[in-house]
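I am writing to request your help with a piece of structural work I have in hand. The matter concerns a single protein, recorded as an amino acid sequence and a row of backbone structure tokens. Could you please explain, in whatever detail you think fit, how the structure tokens follow from the sequence? Thank you for your consideration; the sequence and its tokens are set out here:
>
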Amino acid sequence: MTGVRLAHQRASGVQLHITSLPGGRLGRAAYRFVDWLAAAGQSWWQVLPLGPPDRHRSPYKARSAFAAWPGLLADPRAPVSSAEVAEFRERQAYWIGDWERFSARGAVTDQVRFQREWSALRIYAADRGVRILGDVAIYVAADSADHRARPELFQEGFVAGTPPDSFSDTGQLWGNPLYNWPALQRRRYRWWVERLRRTLELFDLARIDHFRGFVAYWAVPAGARTALVGSWRRGPGRALFQTVERELGLPFVAEDLGVITPAVVRLRDSLGLPGMLVLQFGFDPEDPSNPHDPPNHAVNRLVYTGTHDTDTVRGWYEALEPPRRALVERSLSQLGIVEPEPWWGLIRLALSSPARVAMMQAQDILGLGSEARMNDPARAAGSWRWQLGPRALTSPLAARLRAATEAAGRLTR
């Protein structure tokens, strides 16, 4: 399987990471979720990065940019033949040796098991009209397999983060190694090409996290206590993506959130990549040109009720100050959207957007509050733990979402 560009047909989907399935693994729960998505008229299932997470369970600090996490396996003891191992080694020769040296015994057989389970799930989903949208974390974890095996591709003395933003007054200190972009350029960006090749073996389409970091990234001196002391440095820009496009095409989505400059917009648009809109970032009375406001939505976008980094829509709505809540109510009224629950009003608002794809978090469809938030970027620990109840997504809920999806002209089958 290979990646695909986003179709021009209007569609919608649901974001739910594998660890948020009942039991937190592949297997029956994943197949039941695909069946529910198909019944609900959804065309996309969005997941987070599949790599081995860090001790805080964050998939954005994975121990490998290539390997999948064996903790996601439904059957971690399934037999694997020597022929399967040999074939996998040959096909994944660029990275599997690095992972095997870094990881415990059985590393390759675990990857074979994952490939087997994941491929079967993708075929099952495709047969039901559901494609899988993946996620590429821009950075690798410190002391990860990639960092150890290829230290020449990373900087010393500085780590990744972001300047102050809506999540934190002191910025976000991620601590990931930063790329040595000149060293990568001299190697014709081979590491990135192979990483994205592996990505497109796993997903139909992939979101590139922190897209603005390819234009300029925030470098924080190693050992700093906050990200405030960081500074902007120039990224690779178009050169990287031209190289990727020649070999793989560009079946990607640009996560263009955060401090977005005209240069970031130019790069995204010159590459023809769809960007992202988030309803929770809109409705600012002091910013009528905000791209996240429904009247300002563009077509070549994916619109989200919220993301894994935001509160749930219900938690967000219930905490809104009166001026912003009034703008939400006005937007709903202008479109004739009347729902007994405000979060379902916002789901229908996302579905009504001109954006090509509308994505809802599973928590928002269920109307869950802040207790179901997936991640709080301002906290190092305590996130990534939410799981779906075994019978939470019901047939009546699927019918309700399907009706809203059909009314918005987003049914694709």
Remarks:
- Residues 66 and 198 are 7 Å apart (CA to CA).
- The chain has 14 helices and twelve strands.
